[in-house]
Design goal:
This protein is α/β, with parallel strands linked by helices. It is built from 18 helices and 18 strands. The chain has helices at about 5-20, 50-60, 65-70, 135-145, 160-170, 175-185, 190-195, 200-220, 225-230, 235-245, 250-255, 315-330, 360-370, 380-395, 405-410, 410-420, 435-445, 470-480, and strands at about 25-30, 40-45, 100-105, 125-130, 265, 280-285, 300, 330-335, 350-355, 375, 400, 430, 450-455, 465, 490-495, 495-500, 510, 530-535. The strands form five sheets. A seven-stranded mixed beta sheet has the order 5-6-9-8-7-10-11, sandwiched between helices. It has a four-stranded antiparallel beta sheet with strand order 12-18-13-14, with helices on both faces. The protein has a three-stranded antiparallel beta sheet with strand order 15-16-17. A hairpin with a 6-residue loop joins strand 1 (about 25-30) and strand 2. Helix 6 packs across helix 8 (about 200-220) and helix 15 crosses helix 16.
Length: about 550
């Protein structure tokens, strides 16, 4: 928006608030016509909300705390801004950085859910990222989502037809950003996409800039100047690895040797106009590091990232109490998280707060600066647990439960063996790493079986399977994100081979003949999930009938 538009909507909001006699937290939602100065008021919420938490974390201005002081009779010109400690709360926050927020949707758990977005809220949480430019904050937010991406790119979309791509671009759904980014990579101009979507060209030009940097990286491997530009614009080491055909360790080492390392800037509500001592930081690739390591020994606690089904407020609660215990033991407590909706990301909770993506690269950057006594991962849900092994391999001390013990609890095969050693009874089960092994294991156990991957939380990708054909399809669907699937795949079922033929979009989306119940995405990842197959104790009057041949 232009400054005139911003002030116009601000004045309208203040007029509404005063007319309604609202004191304290409130938000006003307005819709602005991009081709004129006409606007409409959508709604007014006379309370704090999820948006209030986001605004507080984005600006450093503690809305709820100040709203409480107003409620007991104080006015803003009587309250000292707790962030600066010197200015009054009547001053509006001023920012010298860019904040990106992306909602976190649960479609990785509800694969058959309607992904089209409308007036109903479908997001279970959100991520927030801070950077010095839009490109940096956007890419940091993308890798904070924990949906298996580390860039504004989903590799599978390269196989989507142009017609299907444009449909996804025009009709908004949860992953629209990635479809729009793919359209940019295919040569659609910002003007063409703006005409289709009505997204402002300003933002589309930022996606084009990201693509232009990708091309520069691909054309100039090992080029230090291009590397600096990429890091200034939020590129992860993993994306650079893909474009250079090298390893993450080599890219990291190259950065360190050439002093291409992040600095940490303070979120202070005043754009550094006044002196501030807020222990609230974000990373960027620039100059003058504002986060100074103290002489006190510290402990880093990893948060749980965005709220989703199975990983929510319980981990925030645990993180906050772990910080209190760390401080009581005489250590400096440092929190790292990317979720603006948590108590743990309130800067007053810990001695230091780093608002950063929870990836190996970003965590190691903080560790390199702070040199903590160790890292605690057990209060950050599956997010932090999955970082334990790479951190330990990098020489980081994991406090509490060790990696080998985490594996024995998470790895289904190792856990089953531990129960056998302890002579503790359990349902019959086997572990498989591909479809053939899974089918043989299921036949041995007997149907119905429970298909369950390792290293997941909240029932993700788990399914009770009744028959052999459904079982085979489930295995392929569960393996599709982590295994390379060739364009012609053979499934074993009832001793027969059932061939999957590629569709025009490049996906394996239909069986030969009249079958049409499977959609398999191609993937380039090599790691296989491990599956434990268990026979659940179910009583059923009859097995469900299927309309497919040979059911």
């Amino acid at each position: 928006m232009s400054d005139y538009e911003n002030q116009m909507l601000r004045d309208a909001s203040l007029s509404i608030i005063r007319a309604l006699k609202i004191e304290g937290g409130c938000n006003v939602q307005l819709a602005l016509d991009p081709h004129s100065f006409k606007y409409y008021v959508i709604e007014v919420n006379p309370r704090v909300s999820r948006s209030s938490a986001l605004a507080s974390k984005a600006t450093g201005y503690p809305i709820a705390k100040l709203a409480a002081k107003i409620a007991v009779g104080l006015t803003l010109d009587e309250v000292i801004n707790p962030v600066t400690g010197s200015t009054y709360a009547m001053f509006e926050p001023a920012l010298d950085y860019v904040v990106a927020k992306i909602p976190r949707f649960p479609f990785d758990k509800f694969e058959k859910g309607e992904r089209r977005l409308g007036t109903q809220m479908k997001a279970t949480g959100e991520v927030m990222a801070i950077g010095r430019n839009i490109e940096e904050s956007l890419l940091k937010a993308c890798r904070s989502l924990e949906i298996g991406v580390h860039h504004n790119e989903i590799p599978e979309l390269a196989d989507v037809s142009d017609d299907a791509l444009i449909e996804k671009v025009v009709k908004a759904q949860d992953d629209r950003l990635f479809y729009v980014s793919e359209a940019i990579r295919r040569g659609y101009t910002p003007e063409e996409i703006a005409d289709l979507t009505k997204i402002d060209i300003f933002y589309l030009d930022k996606l084009l800039h990201i693509f232009e940097i990708e091309q520069e990286l691909g054309a100039h491997p090992q080029d230090i100047d291009v590397l600096k530009i990429a890091k200034l614009n939020g590129f992860s080491d993993r994306k650079i690895v893909e474009l250079w055909g090298t390893t993450a360790d080599q890219v990291r080492q190259l950065r360190i040797e050439n002093k291409i390392v992040p600095v940490y800037k303070m979120v202070d509500t005043c754009a550094a106009e006044f002196e501030s001592e807020t222990p609230y930081f974000y990373s960027t690739y620039g100059w003058e590091n504002e986060s100074i390591k103290s002489d006190k020994e510290s402990v880093l606690v990893l948060g749980s990232g965005p709220i989703r089904i199975g990983q929510g407020v319980e981990f925030d609660y645990a993180t906050v109490h772990s910080v209190k215990a760390i401080q009581a033991a005489g250590y400096e407590a440092i929190i790292m998280n990317s979720n603006p909706e948590t108590v743990s990301t309130d800067f007053s909770v810990s001695d230091k707060l780093y608002f950063e993506p929870l990836t190996f690269e970003d965590v190691m950057n903080v560790i390199d600066l702070e040199q903590p006594k160790g890292v605690i991962v057990q209060f950050g849900g599956q997010t932090a647990i999955n970082l334990a092994e790479p951190l330990a391999n990098a020489g980081v001390t994991i406090l509490g439960t060790q990696v080998a013990d985490l594996d024995r609890a998470e790895d289904r095969d190792l856990f089953e063996q531990a129960l056998k050693d302890l002579d503790i009874p359990q349902p019959p089960g086997q572990t498989a790493t591909n479809e053939e092994e899974a089918v043989l294991a299921a036949r041995k156990i007997g149907f119905p079986v429970l298909v369950r991957p390792s290293y997941v939380l909240g029932g993700r990708a788990m399914e009770i399977v009744e028959t052999k054909m459904i079982f085979v399809l489930t295995c392929v669907l569960r393996l599709r994100q982590v295994q390379t699937i060739q364009s012609l795949l053979t499934l074993i079922s009832w001793g027969k081979s059932v061939k999957l033929m590629p569709s025009q979009t490049g996906k394996l989306s239909s069986f030969q003949g009249s079958w049409s119940i499977l959609s398999v995405q191609e993937s380039t990842q090599e790691t296989l999930w491990q599956f434990i197959l268990r026979k659940p104790c179910l009583k059923r009057s009859k097995k469900p009938s299927l309309t497919t041949p040979n059911a």
